[in-house]
Records
---
Amino acid sequence: EAQVTQNPRYLITVTGKKLTVTCSQNMNHEYMSWYRQDPGLGLRQIYYSMNVEVTDKGDVPEGYKVSRKEKRNFPLILESPSPNQTSLYFCASSPRGQGVNQPQHFGDGTRLSIL
Amino acid sequence: AQSVTQPDIHITVSEGASLELRCNYSYGATPYLFWYVQSPGQGLQLLLKYFSGDTLVQGIKGFEAEFKRSQSSFNLRKPSVHWSDAAEYFCAVGPTNAGKSTFGDGTTLTVKP
């Protein structure tokens, strides 16, 4: 089954304790992206990757890191989490067809609580 | 910079009534436009997309949207709403060729019996 898999789905942790949220897709998509969703603010793009070893900042990259060493994986790293990073996070991927990024496929989300 | 505005935070309609959700965008070139739906506790699912060509696009679940370049709008419509359509709806621009993707703040749809 074609899917984007995020882990963990839920995490409660404390300020300053490094954490990684994994994202994996099995559709051989070139494009991957991370978003955070906060009430009333829609989805805001954190980082995206157009292909392996190519990453760039979205609109809210502060406090986050990413890497794209393999096509299928795009982990999101919070090196020193703070309470303002408490949010619902989504990973998404899409193929590039005819030079155009196609619709995104989304994971089921990761709810992070930073105390 | 690209942006998306969904003017209606919350809309309530009666089951069987028609629906229109508004979306206005700002983008320098021909936009790639999408509508997604999010049910509670779920990820986002694509309803429909517009890249070019026919300005009236059909999607899943009986939804359609019309691209109007002169009004910078991409409004979502459904002729008869079902109770299962209650969800949050997002309009989005991109990912562009540069990779940026911008979502509106979302519109929550409530369906009255």
---
Amino acid sequence: DTAVSQTPKYLVTQMGNDKSIKCEQNLGHDTMYWYKQDSKKFLKIMFSYNNKELIINETVPNRFSPKSPDKAHLNLHINSLELGDSAVYFCASSQRGPSQETQYFGPGTRLLVL
Amino acid sequence: KQEVTQIPAALSVPEGENLVLNCSFTDSAIYNLQWFRQDPGKGLTSLLLIQSSQREQTSGRLNASLDKSSGRSTLYIAASQPGDSATYLCAAPAAGNKLTFGGGTRVLVKP
């Protein structure tokens, strides 16, 4: 019973391509997040959605566009991929925000841009 | 802007020794302080969450303390085991309800 799942687990692609990463949670949570973990292992928030509404949008290039078709899903579409986009992308969810409770993380999507 | 720092970046101990992991944060106006564990190639697993009104939180062999005035939290792991080998991250909610993570401490427990 996977709580937060992501697909694909690995993604290798060429520079300039467009790709999507999908995330689904079966915890009934209202809030979902996308994080990026770079090669130095620093984990940074990218986006947060609450009930399909964008509530956090960090300084992320507009090549990155999150989409939340319903509150159980938060997908990440990346246009015109660049070498610097290579990282591990984690999806997470919580019922409320981080000021009140912890988050549940997916296993990550390892993106390599060649 | 909240900044979270973890020192040391890596730690190696023999099995059975107690582990002490440090976390410091710059903005003491935090709602809580959270500790996570990350295994290689895996996502993060929540270990402990200490509310700002608490001084410590315990779960089994894990104990986390919080000193808001000095901007510090410490995670103690008693009687370490090889299965405790992982990266441990601390995080604090910042302004705008965003979770700010430290760089992590990579722990190796040698049998």
